[in-house]
Amino acid sequence: MNRAQIEETLACKLSTPLPAEELEDVVQRVALLEEQAALLRALPLGDVEPSWGEWP
Amino acid sequence: MSELTDLSLAELSAEIRTGRISPVEATEACLRRIDACDRTLNSFLTVTADAALADARRLADELAEGRYRGPLHGVPVALKDLFHTAGVGATAGSAILRDWVPEQDATVVRWLRNAGAVSLGKLNMHEFAFGATSENPHFGSVRNPADPERIAGGSSGGSAAALASGLCFGALGTDTGGSIRCPAALCGVVGLKPTYGRVSRAGVLPLAWSLDHVGPMARTVSDAALLLEAIAGHDPADLTSARRPTPPYSRLIEGGVRGLRLGVPGELFWTPLHPEVESAVRTAITALEAQGARVEEVSLPSLAYAPAAQSLLIYAEAAAYHERWLADRSAEYGASVRVRFAQGLFVDAGDYLNACRARALVRRDFAACLQNVDALLTPAVPIPAPLIGQADVQIGDFSASPQNLLLRNTGPFNLTGLPAISVPCGHAGGLPVGLQIAGRPWDEATVLRIALAVERQAKD
Fold first, then answer.
1. What is the pLDDT of residues B50-88, one digit of tens each?
2. What domains appear along chain B, each with residue ranges and CATH number?
3. Which of A42, B23, B49, B372 reaches 20 to 30 Å from B124, CA-CA?
4. How far is B414 from chain A (nearest CA, A)?
């Protein structure tokens, strides 16, 4: 997600625009989240279900 | 500390039961101590002195009539300010809830009161529990009793600071990534995150539903066990509350560690690590070995992706809960938590579900490991308390923000839901260090038993 998309989304979701410094922080944080999501997408999750389930 | 507030909860309890100290004397001693110390510490947001004294008098009358409620009868405690308290504000450390007054007590607050505890008031914290420093832009930072220029840790920073300074005999905290254990470690007190489902979260403002835990904080392991006995148990008001009997923890913690198998995982828990923290923790582990425990290295391969799963879950869930306030009142958040909530708005559903699936793998990995050992030992927090406002922590060539280090070692046990405690085990540069002990699901008793052995060794 690029900076413009992030800015556009935040304009809809926040009542007050973020100061430039905070916006920059969010852009970097979203990039980190995307890296983390990519790491999980690469896992062999197979038929693992997204539930807590019982303790094995 | 004065003589009375120097007692442990268990010691005070014995004095109250035998009539040598009254609940009123205990409450008055805490209120005097709060008056004397909390201008510096900033651990309390609300002190309910009149209500506390009225409760203490009523409980003293009950004792005089021969009605004894149990070990918490007449014991002054305090509550992190995100527990609902009937008629008393619950700000969650935020400006948004500054004027909000709940109509009912949280389940655990009600159970503590029923057990005879006297609430002294509400404790300062990181705003909305979304951070590990308790640097609060609305109410001021909580200061570490060991060095007031340093953070108390968070998010339950007020709870840890108040306990360490003798302002109360027990406290409740919450823990979504380490918010009980981190401040406990940095302030030199005991903090226990029970198994997910062991303690009700009903009436507690959530941060991330699938990671939030409620737990006791205290000056000693025995005190934490007594508090856990009072707050554990099934609560129909919390859908995740387990239907399990509450063991008599305070009677199960003796017995020592001889014959126990203790695993020391490598991986992310030890690198980077402040050298004096490592020294204190290794010394404590060696002492457990000397007391008869068998210590062995264990491997948890899933730790490589646990932080990613934890991160996606906490940000997505936190943003979901706060979405309405962000849309209406985003300017009222402090800057550092506002960017975290905003970040959470960008987790997509598929990635969130993958994080849930990854959590299932991590749980399996930890559960398999805990079939071979009784508990896991790690440093609770890799660094001693940083200075208030400190932007970076340097360990050798490694540099990171305190926020990134403070919860690194505690987060995996929120993801897995396993019980974990921080118990003081020494000092680094004069600042407290905590050993983290994590156990099998529902086995808080063994975790407390090992912690008691560490505590006794550290006091020798």
1. 999 999 999 999 999 999 999 999 999 999 999 999 999
2. 9-252 (3.90.1300.10), 261-300+361-459 (3.90.1300.10)
3. B23
4. 12
